[in-house]
Amino acid sequence: MTRFFAVIMLALVLGAPGATMALEAEQEASEEIAPIGGLSFKDEIELTVVNVIAYVTDKGGRPIVDLTKDDFRLLHDGKVREISHFKLYTEEVFNSRIEALPQADLPPIPDGAEMQPQPDEEPVYIVLFIDHENIHPLDRNRVLSRANQFVRDNLHPPVQMMVATFEKSLKIIQPFTDERDLIVQALRAQKMKTGGRISRDQDRKRILDKMRRHKEDGGSGDINDARNVWGLIIGAAEEEAVNLMFTLHSLRATVSMMAGLPGKKSIVYISNGLPMVAGMELVYAYSNTYNDPSVLTQMSRWDQSRNFQALTSAANSQGVTFYTIGAGGLKHGSVATAEYAGVQDNVAVGVGQENFLDSLRFMASNTGGQAIVNTNDFSKAFDRISNDLFTYYSLGYALNVTGGDKVHRIKIELPNHSGYDLRYRRRFVEKSLETQVQDKVMTSLLFPVKENPLKIDVDTGVPSPASKHRWTLPILITFPLKQLALLPEGEDYVGRAVLFVAARDKEGGQSDLVRQQHEVRIAATDYAKLEHEKWVINASLLMESGSYTVSVGLMDQVTRQASFVQVKKFIEEAVKEK
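-> structure tokens emitted (578 positions)
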């Protein structure tokens, strides 16, 4: 299990060259006073356009590409809105743009470089997420053999792909790239991995077998048999719930990493499914075996629906769509799969299979994606995802931004085409500028965000021992004083900056995002001689030894401009335990 390694120390101090000043409480700058220095204002209260992606298919799953703006009806928070921007995207549109570009303009993107889509192209980011802890190796390899062709067919500008896995912790196997061979190699390397799903399925089967034998014996046996079995069920359900908690945490971390990326963002999640209710089939089998329907009420203690709701809410807030693939393929309630082989309780078998697939359906349907379950034709499954990548309608409408964080309800209708299937994201999250800055800081842990209008520099010092296994890493954030807007306050000029810091280790463990408010105060008479000097923020990170990515964001509260810098640091433990 990955440990969360980094704690941002609260002793963050700010000072002018050669001095430090105490951290002051946050105060709002007056908008009626003209600032000294700083950049142009970034106004939060502005007219903006919300773009909603809609997928329209016939009953056979084939995309419909002949609709016009007048065919759609869009409601925002229950009120009809005019569709001011309308566009149909098809694969032909994307291909025509690519063919129009000189090949010299499409070099491979080096590791760590900023990815720039071509003008008028919407970037597309796809994470191929293989859940080794919740998949059978043979099923996984069958899906991955089809995934290779999906990569070769679809990995071209403006698409970028990444390979991530869950192996007791989140691992980024291959960061975002448009090089097909790198993604294919990363997928190929996953075919030899093993996880904990087989062991948990075997434990579940042993419990089901125990109940089957009880029924075959006509209900005779040890008087304590029911009590012992119930204890085993509790243990298995709780283990399953704990495993699920770490799985969902890794998925939320992946969503968080994608927060600051523009364009279309999706996660292709590959597993044998996740339990919507941990131990559900065991409880049903117990109820049938021991004629005790009262135990069915116990399932509420292992109901995971709130955790799945939290995951999809996070995905919707970051504009991330889930495509879920049930790697187990076609199943029927009367046919026992490996984990249910020999089990005679068909009700428990059917309940168990659907319990693990319902979560995949939930993740997809609540984020505007597709759940691909109960199929052995994974080529067609990936074709359905491919259709969504390049064939869709973009519906835009005007929104008066409030400046805060707010969830809005979206509804799209096709009044004259009731026979078509329509998919779209039903929630739109309006974000404040500060929330957008926080998103970009988290994204920069994986993908550098190259926006630096404040011209900040970030340097790390020499780590010093803090405790037996922890080190204090000094970090120096500097920027030209003239880049920050200052307002007159008595005989001083005062500016306010907000510092955001997060860190990530090479295993994928992430710290929480830490926010610190800082005040810059100088005598008005000193501004002329200091405006070209560097202002200094001293920060300290408390870390264990290892390799880290540190992401820093700094926002000017007056002009609302923000800068982002990513640094790498290796902390080597100098003293080994004897």
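The chain is about 30% helix and 30% strand.
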